[in-house]
Amino acid sequence: MNRVWKIVGITAAVLVVLVGIGAGVVYAGLRSVHEYIPIVSAPPSSTNPGADQSLVLLEGTPDDIDEDYALPEVENPDDTPIYQKVRIDEDVINILMLGQDSGLEDNVSTRSDSCFLISYDRSKGSVKMVSILRDTWTHIEGHGYNRVNAAYSFGGIGLLINTLNDMYDLDIQHYVITGFDEFADCIDQLGGLDMDLTEKEVKFINDRLPDADLKAGPCHLNGAMALLHARNRRTGNGDFGRTQRQRDIMLTSYKTLLSSRNPAQYLSFIQYALNNVRTNMEPDELVTLGMEVLQTENLDISYARLPYDGTWSYAEKDGKSVLSVDFEENTKLIKDFLYNGGEGLTKDREDN
Question: What CATH code is carried by the domain that includes residue 213?
Answer without folding.
Answer: 3.40.630.190
